[in-house]
Amino acid sequence: MDSQLVEMCMESATESLDAVEAWRRQRRTLEMMPSHLAEALLHRLLRRRLLFPSLLEVFKFCVDGIDLRGESYVDAEWMAYIGGFEHLHSLNLSDCNKINSSAIWAIIGMTNLKELDLSRCSKITDDGVRHLTTIPSLEKLWIPETSVTADGVILLTSLTNLSFLDLGGLPVSDSALCNLKVLRKLQHLDIWGSVVSNKGASHLKWFPKLSSLNLAWTKVTMLPCLPSLACLNMSNCTIHSIFEGEGQKALLTKLILSGATIKDVSEAFLHLETSSLSLLDLSNSSLNSFCFLPYMRMISDLDLSGTSAGDESVEHIAFVGQNLRHLNLSQTKLSSAGLGTLAGFVPNLETLLLSYTAIDDSAIPFMCIMPLLKYINMSGTNIRGISNEVDSDLDCVSSLSGLSTLEHLERLDLEETRIKDSALAPLPSFRKLSHLFLRSGSLADTTLHQLSSISSLVTLGIRDGVLTNTGLDVFNPPPPMKILDLRGSWLMTEDALLSFQQRHPQIEVRHDLSIALVKRLSVSSPLSQATPRAKLYINKKGGSSTSPLRSIRDGFLDQRLKYTNEELLAMRFDSTSISRDNVVQIPHELANDG
């Protein structure tokens, strides 16, 4: 009951600009609001485009976390108000492209700020870092893909409380990394894409608590002994040996080597303690032998996608199969026969990704003896959905019926296969299926009708089908549905999509006409008229007109909105006064056409 009452209050408070203005005048009533409720109210206003800079002042005594990620309109004015939040604990400004170093000045000297995310704010420079050095309370800092240089990185040495530092994509040098070794509390360091080499990496041993390290896209080929390290990412590196031979071996739990070039597999893993390794990502790496897998028996998440793994590699995978929960063999040389060999050795498997492999319908019975499967991806394979070859679709037996024994199956991907409508008949019996993705030119309106009976369906994708307006009109989506992806269904019209969206406003419809659809919906949406982001266009008489976005119909913009009635009349009379001798005469046939 309490939660329902809170929801009703939240809904009422964020209904419109008028509703916001009504309680804004009573700012003192928010000062005692619990922080979690205040943050929920603030972020609901943000989602509905009802939040503007001066309104932030109402929250400055009751909010300790602000998330503005991706909001491109956030600028120095917003930061000026945020600077007054005395109890602010975390601030996320990632992807706010108007935030620059000058805007950061507003938060200098904050005493309670512990987490700050400036990821991909490209206008942040070394000057911005100088402002950050006045916030000694910072424990977590993200500044990847900004304009900070190696000199700016060195400035961070004064933030001695940092435990998490993301410098991804910055030109961190060996010298800069050496200077950072004064950050003795550092547990996570991300320097992907830097110019750090083995010389710089040798300084990593001075971080006694370092447990997570990202060195992807660097020149590092070997690391010193790092006994505290648990997670290591060396994707797209050329690896000689992950660790040098001296000292205690690192007890890694996660190792990511995606796209790595591994010179000698036996040498690469020689000084690595594998007894506790639970995640191993070798996707798109240069490996062509997987004989080391039997020594990694605790692996629960294995990614071999994009490698040369095939049926001959299955015996090595089987050695670690007992604990496997997630297995990715997409874009490998695996066939149905290889999957059959593996099937009896992975009793606890929950995720099986086989997209763009050579498997066909004969592989489905092998999946049925993996009882805990929740997610299967067979996109881009030879799956047809039929288990017998007959002339008539009516006589076909669907191979997908075998999957009905998988009581935990929640997601099924069958995009870019030769699946037909008739093969989908068993799917309504899949009680827990909540996400289904199809993409085939053979799917028609019958598909929509059949799939409407899947009671747990939340996301449905039917792309590139020959679905029509009629099929969409009679489609009765399951109650839980939130997303309907119909991209590539070229027979559907904007009017049919708009009608469906109005009947089912809780469903997000994705289609190639989505942009036009959003524009048309904005005409009738009360929230679109209340948003402070929609600019008002001022005419020459000083009055305001509604945004031209609200007049977009059928894909064109009515240019008359830029002028007053008097100006339109003037232009009309000016046009009639033009000498007919200067006008190109239109042929009679064309003049009467439409």
TrEMBL record:
It comes from the Eukaryota. InterPro entries: Leu-rich_rpt (IPR001611), Leu-rich_rpt_Cys-con_subtyp (IPR006553), LRR_dom_sf (IPR032675), Zyg-11_UBL_adapter (IPR051341). Transmembrane segments: none annotated. SMART domains: LRR_CC. PANTHER family: PROTEIN ZER-1 HOMOLOG, PTHR12904. This is Leucine-rich repeat family protein. It comes from Solanum stoloniferum.
